[in-house]
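Hey L., structure's done. Input below.
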Amino acid sequence: MKALGGEKKQSKADLCVEIPFLPMYPITVNIWFADDEYPASGKILLDESADHYLTVEDAVAVGELILERIAEALDLPVQASTI
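Output:
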């Protein structure tokens, strides 16, 4: 996540990173690793002021772009866009 300029944050998630996508537009990625009871999962959180900068459709595209960059940084297969 450092390759994306991310900074690790305290969270209840197993991994929480804040990525400065645009000035005044931070994106928080929370990841919970798989265990015996639950599969792995994650969430992308936007700052409360996000709607002042991008439309919902643009925010979805940003999330997809961030996920692709994370997958590339971790050398994971990148799935085709659904947008």
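The two ends are 24 Å apart (CA to CA). Helices lie at 56-73.

-- N.
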